[in-house]
Write a structure and sequence with these properties.
- This protein folds into 2 domains: about 140 residues, no CATH class; about 50 residues, no CATH class.
- The protein has 8 helices and no strands.
- Helix 3 packs across helix 4.
- The termini are far apart.
Length: about 200
């Protein structure tokens, strides 16, 4: 790192996201909202600060990992902390969040930006932790994640996954050509509405 970069990184690292004296500070809210352990939360916050540093010094647009993006989203909600203190006094310039517009082209664009971000990360910090900076192949719009409150909903796998597991343990069932397979009959009878578990 150049001296100016080192100074910037130190300023970013020294910035406290937790408001002193807060009963429910930023890090606790983050941990509570995503059910992260205290140690993991602290680690992700540090990775967020590294990401912000990269956003300031990279010669390209940077793209965060999903956990880092969650920290950034929450920090943006603390508008005074983010815009006035962090951007205004620590970074000395605004850092805008530019989300994807969706679609295949945008997905490919952001995958490429994410790969470049990982390369820049390696240049400055070495190997990124893989529990925070996931493999670029996992950045896909075909993977659907949803926040679910387990106090309100039961989380059950789709019945087809139960059957796949059963078939892989028992072996492929023999199907008679003259009658429908027992597996198909079971699936037909067990079709459940998707939102049954509320």
């Amino acid at each position: 790192m150049k001296p100016a970069e080192q100074e910037l990184y130190e300023r970013i690292c020294n910035f406290n996201l937790d408001t002193p004296g807060a009963i429910f500070p930023f890090s606790h809210k983050l941990s509570w909202e995503y059910r992260w352990s205290e140690i993991y939360t602290i680690r992700v916050i540090q990775e967020y600060k590294k990401f912000v540093f990269l956003a300031m010094v990279a010669d390209h647009v940077v793209s965060p990992s999903a956990p880092v993006d969650r920290v950034w989203h929450l920090h943006l909600l603390y508008t005074h902390s983010y815009w006035d203190k962090f951007c205004g006094e620590v970074l000395n310039k605004p850092l805008h969040h530019r989300p994807s517009l969706g679609g295949k082209e945008e997905g490919l664009k952001y995958r490429h930006l994410y790969e470049r971000t990982l390369d820049t990360y390696r240049h400055y910090f070495g190997t990124p932790p893989d529990d925070i900076w996931h493999d670029p192949r996992l950045r896909s719009e075909s993977i659907a994640f949803q926040w679910v409150d387990p106090k309100v909903y039961w989380i059950l796998p789709h019945p087809i996954y139960w059957l796949k597991g059963l078939v892989s343990k028992v072996g492929k069932p023999k199907v008679s050509a003259s009658r429908p397979s027992k597996v198909r009959a079971f699936l037909h009878k067990s079709r459940l509405p998707r939102n049954i578990c509320k």
